Amino acid sequence: MSGPAGFGRERLLLDVLAVLVPVVVVLLSETDQAWALPAALVACAGLVLRHRCPLLSLLLCLPGLVGGLAWAPTCVALFRLGRAWSNTWWLLCCALLAALSAFLPVAVQQWQLLSAASLTMAAVTALVCAGVPTVMGTLLATRAQLTASLDRLRAATESELLAKEGAARAEERSRIAREIHDAVGHHVTLIAVEAAALHASSEQAEVRASATRVRELAKEALGEMRSTLGLAADQRDSTSARAIPELVARARRSGIRVTLSDECSQAVQLSPGVSRAVYRVVQEALTNVSKHAPGAAVVVELTGDDELLRVVVRNGAPVLGAHAGVLGAHAGAVGDAPDVGCGGSGLAGLSERVRMLGGTLDAVPSDEGFELRAEIPLSPAA
Predict the structure, then answer these.
(1) Which of 121, 225, 306, 353 has a CA between 20 and 30 Å from the CA of residue 284?
(2) For this UniProt entry, which segments traverse the membrane (predicted)?
């Protein structure tokens, strides 16, 4: 037998045998006292109560012990009492009470016929018959308690090991983050310094404007890296949905003709994951416009309701005619995005990021160019 059902059937069988076996033993025993057999059968019937009231079950066995036929049910009752109670003195008193109930009638009735050695042997036999099942019950109860304690200790040890492992992983991630920040941050800072120097030394307005943009982008890249690595000094998230207007403004300054229509993200409280994903969708689309559809007009629309946020980035045909439209080179990656994580691999990574939030990302041809559509549920994804 295995499983809870098998364990229940096994326990029921043991409970039935614990009552039936003493009944059979009592019926097969002989005595010259007419009341001894009914008293022993009452003791057997009292075994049904041994789980709820083990002391009452033992007390019902005492009259049968006086008659000499209730040793079998008494052993069962004492065994159960040893398993249920943990007080050694009470268990000793119960075992002595059972032994005296069996020994005293014999000693009173036959003390003239029995020698001192025989009476001593009868007393020892009564004590052994009463003490052995009590001790066995106590030992099994102690074993069960030790097993439970070992299980708890094993669970606590495993939890401690998992906690130490998690702490080690967190410490290693923190160390790697610091190394990345120190290495990459140094070079990005140098880029910003060089751009500032170029701005100060150049007399051409276009060069000065480009140097200013490069310096701003370097500062933003450093801030995003610090935020991603958990090293930011403040809680301002420069890659949230609320930063989309600044993103669009920066795109305009770089020469992209973009129009923003935001009816949702600024008014609805978005979770950090959704907010960052919306920002990345718009950022990726504008980046691809600059690469594959230079000069094209772009419309960014954010709409939705209490349950769903929709992001649509639509562009026209490129003015220079170099490409068919934004996202065209990457459209095939969205339909079957490889497992590349949550970002950093163009539309493939962006599609995976949106999918992990329970949403969908599609890149489809529009009338003159391409359209990127993302639908992200506002409630947590399953």
Answers:
(1) 306
(2) 12-29, 35-51, 58-82, 88-107, 119-141
Beta bridge partners of 260: 300
The one-letter amino acid at 165: E
Contacts of 304 (CB under 8 A, 6+ apart): 263, 264, 268, 310, 378
Q: Is 109 helix (H, G, I), strand (E, B) or coil?
A: helix
In angstroms, the CA 134 to CA 129 distance is 9
In angstroms, rounded to a whole number, what is the distance separating the alpha carbons of residues 378 and 359? 9
DSSP SS3 for 363: strand
pLDDT digits (tens, 9 = 90+) for 265-321: 666 777 777 888 888 899 888 888 888 888 889 999 988 877 888 999 999 888 754
DSSP per residue, 205-223: HHHHHHHHHHHHHHHHHHH
Query: N- to C-terminal Cα distance for the chain?
Result: 38
Q: What is the 3-state secondary structure (H, E, C) of 317-345?
A: CCCCCCCCCCCHHHHHHHHCCCCCCCCCC
Distance CA 240, CA 278 (A): 8
Tell me phi and psi for residue 251, to 5 degrees.
-65, -40
Domains and CATH numbers, the chain: 3-156 (no CATH), 239-377 (3.30.565.10)
Q: What is the pLDDT of residue 234?
A: 42
Residue pointed to by tokens 């094209």: 296
Going from the C-alpha of 42 to that of each of 58, 63, 312, the distances in angstroms are 11, 9, 85
3 state SS of 262: strand
Helix 88-110, helix 116-201: angle, nearest 10: 170
pTM over 0.70: no
CB 358 within 8 A of CB 377: yes
User: Element (H or E) spanning 90, and its range?
Assistant: helix 88-110
Q: Which residues of 15-45 are buried (b: 16+ CB within 10 A; e: fewer)?
A: eeebbeebbebbeebeeeeeebbebbbebbe
